[in-house]
Design brief:
Length: about 210
């Protein structure tokens, strides 16, 4: 059976959610962050050489990196669900937003989080530039979901599963005011109402307030 090793408040929530959406049988193993450092515990870091979440085990396979895990689960267990084929008119949009999640938005928020921890002057050029880059990324998402129901268009896909962590749980580490992005808030209301999302978050992070607005 597929085993999902879930670190609380981490990108591994994507994998729990994906399994719930697909109805894939899986075993969930939960790990808590250190309450002081907020880092993964030693037994989680020992699962994979990179020492970061998420990690799955499927038979003899141990796999990390959320995008790779999503691709793997979709290819092995998805039966064509939650993805768009190359003949779909929205295929390019699906690909773009699937990779935008970690390639642009999550990466930018991560850089901003690290810069903020350095306690730089508010007018530090690198800090100012990074804040502006993150704002542009949020504005871009906001413009996209103003015109479509989901990132790829009218169909819910793994592109949505990839981006929601950055729009929600990541804000525990790098706060961001979504009042400037009303379309993102409406979008999060749509995806947050999905039963599989609710089940995944209750199983993976019970009691955690969901930052859906």
């Amino acid at each position: 059976m597929l085993t999902v090793h879930h670190l609380g408040k981490s990108q591994s929530e994507r994998i729990v959610w994906l399994c719930e959406e697909l109805g894939v049988p899986y075993e969930l193993k939960r790990y808590a962050r250190d309450p002081v450092t907020m880092l993964a515990p030693p037994d989680y870091k020992a699962l994979h050489p990179i020492g970061a979440a998420p990690v799955i085990v499927d038979g003899d396979l141990v796999l990390a990196e959320s995008g790779a895990i999503v691709d793997y689960i979709i290819a092995k267990y998805g039966n064509g669900r939650l993805v768009l084929g190359a003949d779909d008119a929205d295929f390019a949009q699906f690909l773009y937003w699937f990779h935008f999640a970690n390639g642009t938005l999550q990466a930018g928020m991560g850089r901003l989080m690290l810069l903020n921890r350095l306690k730089l002057a508010d007018d530090n050029p690198m800090l100012v530039a990074t804040r502006a880059r993150v704002d542009r990324a949020f504005d871009f998402v906001d413009a996209r979901v103003r015109d479509v129901e989901y990132l790829a268009g009218s169909t819910f896909t793994v592109a949505d599963i990839m981006i929601v962590f950055s729009l929600t749980t990541m804000r525990y580490f790098q706060p961001y005011d979504l009042s400037r992005c009303p379309n993102v808030v409406s979008y999060l209301g749509r995806v947050g109402a999905r039963p599989a999302y609710g089940r995944a978050m209750k199983k993976g992070d019970p009691g955690m307030a969901l930052l859906l607005n």
